[in-house]
Amino acid sequence: MPSDENEGITSTAKAIITVTTILEIIAILAVSLRIYTRINYKLYLGVDDWTIIAALLLSCGTSIIADYGIVVTGIGDPNYQSTRDSTVLALKIKLAFENAQVATMGVIKISVLFFYRRIFGISRRFVTASNVLLALITSFTVAVILAIIFSKGPVYRQWDLTASYNTNPSAIIICYIAGNSFFDILTLALPIAAVQRLHVDQSKKLFVSVIFVLGNT
Known about the structure:
By secondary structure, this protein is an all-alpha fold. It folds into two domains: 1-81; 109-217. The chain contains seven helices and no strands. The protein has helices spanning 3-6, 11-40, 47-72, 84-120, 124-149, 169-196, 202-216. The protein is globular, with a radius of gyration of 21 Å. It starts with a helix and ends with a helix. 20% of the residues are buried.
C-alpha cells in the first residue's frame, strides 16, 4: 500500500517538498517585487512582465505536480509496493510534469528575451536577432511537448502499460537537454554581444556582461 495511507509522508518526500516550496516562495517574492516596482514607479507592464508571470504560474504548477507525485508514489519508502492503478497514476503524473516543465523553461526564455528587448530594443539588429531566437525557442518548446504527448498515441496509451512507444523516449530527453542548453547559450550571448557594441570602456562592458550572466543563471 502507498506510504501516505499507512505511515504518512516519508522524510525524503518531506525534504523534497520543503525545498521545492522554498524555491517557489523565493520565485513568487522576486516576481511580486518586480511587478510592484513597475507599478510603484508608474511603468507599464510589458510583454516581459506578463510572460514572467505566466512562467511563475507554470513553475508553481510544475512544483505542485512534482510534490503530488512524490507523495502518492512512495518516494523514500522501502516498503512501498506499487499496484497497477498506482503505476497508471504515476505515468499520468509523469506526462503532466514533463510537459509543464518544458513549457516553463520555454516561457522563461521568452520572458528573458522580451526583457532584453526592453533594454536593447532601439537596435534593429538586436530586434531581428531576438525575433529569430523567439521563433526558434517557441517552435522547439512546442515540438518537444508534442513529441512527449504523442510518443505513445493516442494520448491515453501513455498510461497503457502494454503499449509500446512510437518514438524513443530517451532520444526525446537527449534532444531536449541538448536543445535547451543550446538556447540557453544563445539567450545568454545575445545581450553580451549588444553590450560589446556600447561606447564605454572595456571594464564597464565586462561588468555589465557579468550582471547579465548572473541574471541569466
